[in-house]
## 1
Amino acid sequence: MTRAVLIPADLIERLQENGRASSRHGDGDYPPIVKLFTPDGRATWLLTEPDPQDPDLAFGLCDLGQGYPELGYVRLSEILEITGSLGLFVERDVAFRTEKPISHFAVLASATGRILT
């Protein structure tokens, strides 16, 4: 990551733990570890794990603010380049904590058209 550290080392380790578990046991329904968002926009990402073969690729629930949140992969390097309407970069929600699995957030997002945390 080229900007100031968006995801600190302790959270990267937790993401990687989910990735290792997913590699061993198949796809899991893990709680999101990180919530990223555009402070001057409507985009939100809840990330659960990186791809073990490509750590720049992370799995999670992605919402670009257009009413169609979806589960999938996103490049962290691309998130770092995104700015909102006022030119502010993506930030991490430092208060975000959950024990609920990503499927919980996906069901809510499907019903409401946006990620609710």
Note: The beta strands are 34-37, 44-51, 54-63, 70-75, 91-92.
## 2
Amino acid sequence: MTLPEVIGAIHPLREAWGIPPSEPIGAVTADSRQVGRNSVFVALQGEHADGADFVGEAFGKGALAAIVSEAGARKVPDGLFRTKPVFVVRDPVEALGDLARAHRLRHRNIPLVGITGSSGKTTTKEMLFCLLSRTRRVLRNPGNRNNLIGMPLALLELSAEHDAAILEMGSNAPGEIARLAAIACPDIAVITNIAPAHLEGFRTMEGVAREKGDLFRALGGSGTAVVNATDLRVVREAGRCRAEKVHYGVALNDFSGQIVSMSDAGMRIVVRTPAGEFSSFVGVAGEHHLMNALAATAAAFTLGMRPAEMEEGFSGFSSVPGRFHPVPLRGGGLLLDDSYNANPASTEAALRSLALLARGRRTVVVFGDMLELGESSSSSHFRIGRLIASLSVDRLFAFGAGAAQAARGAQDGGMNGSAIDHTTDRGRFREAVRGFVQEGDVVLVKGSRGMRLDEVVADIREVLA
């Protein structure tokens, strides 16, 4: 894109000086440390720093232009306004999205897969990337950069060299998925599941469903919706869009499959497609990850891949740290690092997979609060505690105010009180876990990101890995 095209995309509030008519822009970044020659620097207001403070530095590093808010413009020296293209906009985040959408429309011929859901988004994205990248050049957003800043920045890296794009989309407030979908213009949409998550922002499950369903509705009458047939809310949202639909599930769908065998290292699955079946090893275990693999298969099939091409694709997948990531421990033990995030559905799935992987070994659950559940928090934690008891877990370490209800639920479900340890003292919690786990244990660490259970994962690895 050239700067006049940038102006046409973001509609700045006032004219800027020094605009070369045809010089192409370089990378678009919101991090002044990453600015290079011909970059466009988007000055965002962060928690700890204001990008407007670094506009001068960005131009000093060779930036071609900067985008700032009206408030941020007051921090920019007048000399820069008189000599450099400084674009003042009402909302730099919105301008970033508008710029990414304009860029996407220049590459509309490249098929794009949008993925959202209450859980499993990142894993499904990485599985699909493994399938496609064996034969195609694929763009995906790195890590979990799936919000109104991270996703547009990733999309702006799309180029004619790519054969496909996969963009994960996350949301914790109404309207965000609709905005992300409007920016990305997906050809294929995947909703992994719809479950209680971010209820403080969406208030009700209907609100969650509407938000996720906006990705399907963004397809209009074209494109393909990849539908989880085992999730009635996903099926209902699919019924509200006009796109073509393909369904996946454990049986009697366009795409189905089963787990043939399971070990600490992962599982072997058989997947059935409209063009035949294939078998593959996947480096992560659990029924919920079978569903993620089926979603990835359905999207890859829609993009033209066939069973023979996909057979080895999943073998290149390795689980993402923090997302049910298996770590071998001494003495034949296993650490299941699921510390990145938690909601009731993903926690239940992780617990059931823990039970399947136990195989006679002592099981330990290290559980932290599931955050942002609003009024359903107490009952949701209590039900998780009851499930822990029903799965005959040997020891529960519960951390946080919400986890107190999980401890109560576990005891109510018949778990011996001496096997339950609850605290809100982080230091005592970490020390108790370190002092208890031993060689040969299977340990699940699960909680919302704000509970910082990755610290406990590091403790266990230090002691036993």
Note: The chain has three domains: 3-91, 107-316, 325-464.
## 3
Amino acid sequence: MAKLFEPFQLRGLTLRNRVGVSPMCMYSAVDGLPQAWHLPHLGSRAVGGAGLVMAEATGVLPEGRITNGCTGLWSDAHTQAWAPIAAFIKSQGAVPGIQLAHAGRKASAALPKDGGASLDNSHGGWDTVAPSALAFGAGLSKVPQALDAA
């Protein structure tokens, strides 16, 4: 416990302590954009004293999200929506972080509150891609298109 509340340095990054908030998928975004809800959710962790506050799995492409409720970072609008959240976290003495993600074969799912099963493209889903053409779960996921070197 002695080192838990001591600063931690890694290369040019210094955290005020070794308490880090893990990324939590909250499924509260609209079109990949974090909403007003994200500011108090993440900001309160910084106010509470965490040294690092990580934002949830954030898709680098719209098709890379797990659900339509996942956050994204693929346009200037997304950058602008994240900016005040990151600035507030930083203003409270914490370091903002983000978990960049691509859901691969797990993409195109319904929100967990709606069962989490794969969404058909006619019901808001999208085509998925992954390293192989294997579904995420038997009968629960669509088969993704396998990526190749190109």
Note: Residues 84 and 99 are 17 Å apart (CA to CA).
## 4
Amino acid sequence: MPERTYNVLFLCTGNSARSILAESLVNHLGKGRFRGYSAGSFPKGQVHPLSLELLASLGLPHEGARSKSWDEFAKPGAAAMDFVFTVCDQAAGEVCPIWPGNPVTAHWGIPDPAAVAGSRDVQMKAFRDALHALQSRIGLLLHLPVETLDRMTLEQKVRDIGRAQAPTA
């Protein structure tokens, strides 16, 4: 019997950088066992160009990436999420929709690379740092024995992942 696929939604306010990076990483690293999605509470309407450039340079999936509202995932008929992670502090403080499927939730705050000013190299470093921090946390998620953990333990473990200091490049 094939393993179950777990749906993971990453939320941020603008859905143009961190949540897009996380979606791509889960879809790549999850190898079909985990399926990534992303959305924003107030989507910018376009993905940040440096997000797409970084993903492309690393050979990570980015085709079809788009900035979209979290309302898409809260309406009837939407895919039920198993996990919902906020990756920006602003989205973590907002009142979220009621998610179909009663997913496990946690806050995995990552500094916003799109907010970094400076040269293109400085900005790209911020995007790489965000990607590395997300990759570290997502790697820990993917190695959890999700199938064997009770819900309370699973919630604690994913919250602990978010509280861990993420390494920088």
Note: The mean pLDDT is 91.
